[in-house]
Design brief:
The complex is a heterodimer of chains A (261) and B (265). Chain A has 261 residues and is mostly helical. Chain A has ten helices and no strands. Chain B is an alpha/beta fold. Chain B has nine helices and eleven strands. In chain B, strand 2 and strand 3 form a beta hairpin. Classes of the chains: A mainly alpha (261), B alpha/beta (265). Chains A and B meet through helix 7 and helix 8 of A and strand 6 and helix 4 of B.
Chain lengths: 261, 265
């Protein structure tokens, strides 16, 4: 219980201090509330629009979770392929880097043309934004395995595949999970980009769409309330991933990692 | 004759083990890197070990001892000469236990690689753990074990490879003096047990500890500094178990030190 408090208290204190300063700044007339709403206004917008925000949140959360899953799957598979084939590494790596420079708006039209107004083109956008850190960290993790370890496996008559399964794969797992954490950090903003750059049908289009329309309609407090939901959601996802890491790679537990608690 | 023998996998335990090592006239030079000079590691080295023999190789650091073991294990190819003999397994200086596997799964790694079912592999590891004083540590993770315990697990892993030749590369070099002395006694007993059960397992032990060599080996081969070459061979021929304070042991230790150029002050 004490340890829990020790983890929760610092971020809550910092949040309180920052929100307090913000509140004072707006209340003392430092800025027009239509430009920057005071925290209490955002809080009441959050409360007053809870139902709407919840419906939009469910859509965005689904996009983030599935899009991230797609990014992890694709990034991991690509990293393994690159690890096994020098040729593939040379062929693919520059293009993977280049892909990160492509503005999503440029490719949004063909994505919608191919896959319509549903969730799938959005998942592709999120995956495109998120897969790269997974590839880089996993490739490095796979290559960072102790060469003496591989030598040992060779004297035990391990095949290439067995060396991968017993040594390289588990050795790369913590690095891959670090990549996943970076991917997650950009994944939430990725969902925003995905929603605002592709068309959607249906009553709710996600928090990203909500923020954009509030922005255009000068619904500033609600725009900030939706952003606050994204903020907390990113923290929750990061935390879930840290817990997953403890499950998947318990041998790294005695090593410091970037935790949110 | 050198490579073909190791090509076919020939595990595992309880196969009648008949191991020999035949290294003759071997040289090994590491090619120059980044404009530096090439490094000769071994120069015209010959080493024979008969079935069931324990040969210790002592020499200063950098005399190519590790290179010799990697040649015997087929991890490197000689530039000249030939390496032959039965399939060999390496036990490296650092235990190299896999941190994601429990002690018993690390020990049973060779059996898993040979596609034995996990339950059977663990059972074999547990049998050896019980016999070698490791019981109770089956499920421990490597980071929970002391350096000495880790080396014991690494040794069990080496035994369970089922290969007739064991190459031990300074197995206790990274341990403190007291643990090392303890481990030498443990290894002597473990090898004794192995011989009575498995048969003619051959051991090549590389060390820079002359006393360790005299305590454990049937024969001690002394290497010169780089490039390594044989400068002396000492038959030990003492009954086991041997005490480090025994007059015959200290006399042989003296002989080995003199061969290393460390005898006189």
């Amino acid at each position: 219980m004490r340890r829990r408090a020790a983890h929760l208290l610092p971020p809550l204190l910092l949040a309180a201090a920052l929100l307090g300063a913000w509140e004072l700044y707006v209340d003392l007339g430092g800025v027009d509330p239509a430009v920057l709403p005071a925290p209490h206004e955002v809080a009441s917008a959050l409360w007053g629009n809870a139902g709407l925000l919840w419906q939009n949140f469910k859509i965005t959360a689904e996009e983030v979770v599935l899009g991230l899953g797609l990014a992890l799957l694709a990034g991991f598979a690509l990293a393994v392929a690159i690890h096994f084939s020098k040729w593939l590494r040379r062929a693919v790596y520059p293009h993977a880097v280049g892909s990160q420079a492509v503005p999503i708006a440029v490719i949004a039209a063909p994505l919608v043309f191919w896959w319509g107004f549903g969730i799938f083109p959005k998942l592709v956008v999120i995956a495109l934004i998120c897969f790269f850190p997974v590839v880089v960290t996993t490739v490095d993790g796979l290559a960072a395995v102790d060469p003496d370890q591989l030598k040992l496996l060779r004297t035990l008559d391990a095949s290439r595949w067995q060396a991968f399964r017993f040594a390289e794969l588990p050795a790369a797992l913590p690095a891959a999970l670090s990549g996943a954490r970076i991917a997650l950090a950009v994944g939430v903003i990725g969902a925003f980009i995905a929603e605002t750059s592709t068309a959607t049908t249906g009553p709710y289009a996600g928090l990203g769409r909500e923020i954009m329309s509030d922005l255009n309609n000068l619904q500033t407090p609600r725009e900030y309330a939706a952003t606050a939901v994204l903020f907390v959601f990113a923290i929750a996802c990061f935390h879930a991933l840290t817990l997953a890491e403890r499950r998947l790679a318990p041998w790294t537990a005695n090593r410091p990692t970037g935790e949110t608690r | 004759m050198s490579t073909g023998l190791r090509a076919q996998p020939q595990p595992l335990e309880r196969v009648g083990l008949q191991g020999t090592v035949a290294v003759s006239g071997v040289s090994r030079v590491y090619p120059a890197r980044d404009g530096g000079a090439s490094v000769p590691a071994l120069a015209d080295v010959s080493l024979r070990a008969g079935a069931g023999e324990l040969v210790a190789v002592v020499g200063p650091s950098g005399c190519g001892k590790t290179t010799l073991l990697e040649l015997i294990c087929g991890l490197q190819q000689p530039d000249a000469g030939s390496v032959g003999g039965a399939p060999a397994v390496l036990m490296p200086q650092h235990d190299l236990l896999l941190p994601w596997l429990s002690a018993q799964d690390n020990a049973a790694l060779a059996l898993r690689i040979a596609r034995r079912p996990r339950a059977r592999a663990r059972e074999r590891a547990r049998e050896l753990f019980a016999e070698l004083g490791l019981d109770g540590f089956e499920a421990a993770r490597p980071h929970e074990l002391s350096g000495g315990m880790r080396q014991r697990v690494a040794f069990v892993r080496t035994l369970l490879s089922g290969k007739p030749v064991l190459c031990l590369d300074e197995p206790f070099g990274a341990l403190d003096a007291i643990t090392r002395a303890e481990m030498q006694g443990w290894l002597a007993r473990a090898l004794q047990r192995d011989r009575s059960k498995i048969g003619q397992r051959t051991v090549v032990l590389v060390t820079h500890d002359v006393e360790e060599a005299v305590l454990l080996a049937d024969r001690v081969v002394v290497f010169s500094p780089r490039p390594g070459r044989t400068v002396a061979e000492i038959e030990i021929g003492l009954p086991r178990p041997r005490a480090r304070t025994d007059a015959a042991v200290t006399a042989l230790r003296e002989r080995a030190l003199i061969a290393l150029g460390l005898g006189v002050r």
